[in-house]
Design brief:
The chain has about 170 residues and is α+β, with helices and mostly antiparallel strands. About 40% of the residues lie in helices and about 20% in strands. Strands 2-1-5-4-3 form a 5-stranded antiparallel beta sheet.
Length: about 170
Amino acid sequence: MKNPQIQPTANEKVMRENDFIVSKTDTKGRITYGNEIFIEFSGYSEAELLGAQHNIIRHPDMPRGVFKFLWDNIAAGNEVFAYVKNMAKDGSFYWVFANVTPDYDAAGRISGYLSVRRAPKRSAVQVVDGLYRAMLEAERKAGPKDACDASLALLVGVLKEKGMSYDELVHAL
């Protein structure tokens, strides 16, 4: 579980061009695998990561609505691409462009999730950061009970205004 005692810092770790952060979770979001790059950027040891909730690296600048959208889609068997700001154990942050897909067992049931993250385009991070700040403000105004709905409504409004689907927006950045 995320450690509330970790305070975010302004120190950014920038992914190298050829890095790929890979992790796997079970259907409850508990980490079952993390590659060396995941361990490096997260700042946690493999022992600290395995069995922990994936939100151990959630940065408070990430709107709850983004994760609701992501989880709703992958639980339905869909692939999702997203820009995500993560927080390392030391409070530093790192942006990623994530591809999250369901993993299936031999019977065709979702048995977990695979996430592969790479370095994001810096120009896209600037756009997404502004959108996420607006979504966080919508969540704050709505209060905890309605935060996700308010955040998602703002995202849907932006997509409608741009005449794009979520996937089109993410790939156009």
